[in-house]
Structures are given as structure tokens and as C-alpha cells.
Amino acid sequence: MSNELSLQEIYRAQFVLKNIIRETPMVAAPTIKPGCDIYIKPENLQVTGSFKVRGASYMISQLSEKEKERGVIACSAGNHAQGVALSAQKYGIKSCICLPEGAPISKVEATRGYGADICLVPGVYDDAYARALELRDERGMTFVHPFDDARVIAGQGTIALEILDELMDADNIIVPIGGGGLISGIAYAAKQLKPSIKVWGVQGAGAPSMLQSLQHGQIERLYSVSTIADGIAVKEPGALTFSLCQQYVDGVVTVTDDEVCAAILHLLEKHKMIAEGAGAVSVAAAMFGNLPLEGKKTVCVVSGGNVDVTMLNRIINRGLQKGGRLCTLSLEISDRPGQLNLVSQLIAKLGANVTAVLHERTNSFIDVNSCVLRISMETRDQNHINEICRVLTEHGFSILGEA
């Protein structure tokens, strides 16, 4: 494994990748957080739909002819797999990819479409990693690490060159963290070119491996991970990436699944841009992460867009709920004629749209002469929901719960 990183290497990577990757354009995104000057670096528009093609392509480009003859092997939750497969195809060499069995079908088939041999492994990323190392030794192939290799990190660092070339006065860059390869490359390059810039990392609340390791000053392995951002669900950061993050990253925050869903919805609705969970965590952090962004120019790296389309409906609904755009209220009402009509009229006057109603008489926790009304509606935001609750309460209805 190569472990030497330099700005010269990152510039060399930029030259090598010129005819392989897309130089993704910066997009102004003022609605992400009012009062903040925010831009998006949309690596979801990259070849293969993810930044991973940068590091994989540069690493493979640096192999010897003998190594290229033997082929490459990698493990991935999906995006690195596609990057390695495409890069191997570009250089005319064979590739084998180990993926967790739970990887989205869309990512598996996309990888297969680039000509790679697929090996599905029970478990999560770390299990696929162990199997890939076994196959590497059996077949004599070169392992392309998804994050803990200086050549891979150099390829990812080209994103920082592009950001600062277009927005040299940027104050902050917010970057997703899984194993740490992306933020290591960006932070290293950005700090070399502009030492005053702040680089913030983001992890899913259910997979804070780098955050926990940095807090405790040593690499730590999580027992389990659980996050909608499957592309960054890594149990243990790399040795090289941990060291680079210690030196160059200004802080790491976490975001919840609901916050990630809200960010995905915002990108879809306001910017007509599809991001996967791992790609949207940077935007979620800008929206909810309590980072010092006011009055600063901030770039959110949207690292990938390979979302599992079968999940989109659930993601959108969760995002709508988080943003106060969907609401279900449970009310205790008197079991007599006209009560449902009155509730509906009050809600209609306040501008909400009722989408579903459920009337129950079997709840043992309420008065025998009452019933429970569960009413779902489309609302503007949380303030709108609060106003509806206030008016209903003023008219004598008891609110049992909100969802």
C-alpha cells in the first residue's frame, strides 16, 4: 500500500484523470440554509454517479504492466465498485468486485455492466473487504483499496483543486466520511492551497467510526453500523485516513436518518438533483448540523447519486415529515355527530390538506364517550402544524400525539 501523499501527486492525478472523469460544476444553493452562502459540488453528476471513479482511476493508472496483466480486485458497498470496474475497463484489464449481499441491486448491476466479475459476500463492507483480501492472495490480483491508499486519496483530492479553482474565497468545505478517503484528499489539498479554509466531516449518527476514533485519539472499530447512508456505513477508518483527518480536518458532526432524508428531498425539490444518502449528508449537516456557516462561503460535496430507486418513496415521505410537510395528529374527540366535520373545517381554514382519516372507538385510554381520530394532512412546515394544534386545542380537542 502506498502511504505517501503530496500536492504534486494530486496535481498529477488531475492531469491523468482529465480524459476519464467529469469536472463537475459548482452550483449555488442559497435555500439550503438561509443566511448562509452555500454551494454544491455535485459529484453525483460524475461518471458512474460518484466521486469514487477519481481515486480508483488514478490508482489503477499507476500500476505496473505486470500488475495490470494480473487484474485488480476491490470491495465496496457499490460506488467504489463501479469506479474500479469502469477504470479497469478503460485500461483494458480484468476486475473482480466483492460487494456486501445487501448492496442495492442497482449498484450491483451497474458494476456488472462495466464488465467486472461480481462476488456477493454475506454481511457488510468489512466482510466484503476480508473476502477481497482472500481472493487477492489466491489470484495474485492487485487490491484497490476504497480509501486507505495515497494514490486513491490523491485522486479524491482533485475535487479540492476544482473547488478552489472556481471558488478560491470559499471558507468551508463539508465532506461525507465513510472510511475517510474523500475528506483526507480534499482536506490535504485544500489546506496546502489555503490554510485558513475549514474542512468539516459528516457521518451518519448510526455509523460514527471516524468521529469516535478522533474523539478518543485512536482508531476504534464499531461493533455495528446502521444508517440510511449505506455508502459511508464503515465500521473502522483507515490508518492513513485517520492520520490525515487528525492533521487536516477541523471537526466531524453526525446527522440522523431523518435529516438525511430531508436533505435528499431538498436537493430533489429545489435543485432537481438526486443524491444518495451518503451523498446528501453534507447538505444535511449544513441544514441541521450546527456548523459555524453564517456569513461564510460554504461548499457541500454531494459525493454520489446512486440512490436505490425502490427506497425513494420512503425517503421522500421521511423527508416530508422531517420538514413538517406531512403530519398525522391523533385527537380525542366526543363521539357525537358533527365532530369530524368541525375538525375538517378548522384544518381547511388553516390551509392544510387532509389526506387520510381513521376513526377508532376501541381505545381504552380515553373517556368512554370519546373516540380517537387520526388525521393525516399535508402542511407547510412545523410552524403551520403548531398553529393547527393550537386552534384545535382552543376548540376543545385534546391532542394525543403527533407524527
Summary, kept brief:
The protein has helices spanning 7-16, 52-61, 65-70, 79-90, 105-113, 125-139, 150-166, 181-193, 209-216, 239-248, 257-271, 277-288, 312-322, 339-349, 382-394, and strands at residues 27-28, 37-42, 72-75, 95-100, 117-121, 142-143, 172-176, 198-204, 251-255, 297-302, 326-334, 353-360, 370-378, 398-402.
Notes on the structure:
The structure is a single chain. The model has no long low-confidence stretch (mean pLDDT 92). α4 (79-90) links the parallel β3 and β4 (95-100). The chain has a 6-stranded mixed sheet with strand order 1-2-10-7-8-9, sandwiched between helices. The protein has helices at 7-16, 52-61, 65-70, 79-90, 105-113, 125-139, 150-166, 181-193, 209-216, 239-248, 257-271, 277-288, 312-322, 339-349, 382-394, and strands at residues 27-28, 37-42, 72-75, 95-100, 117-121, 142-143, 172-176, 198-204, 251-255, 297-302, 326-334, 353-360, 370-378, 398-402. It contains 15 helices and 14 strands. The protein is elongated and about 85 Å long. With 403 residues, it is of the alpha/beta class.
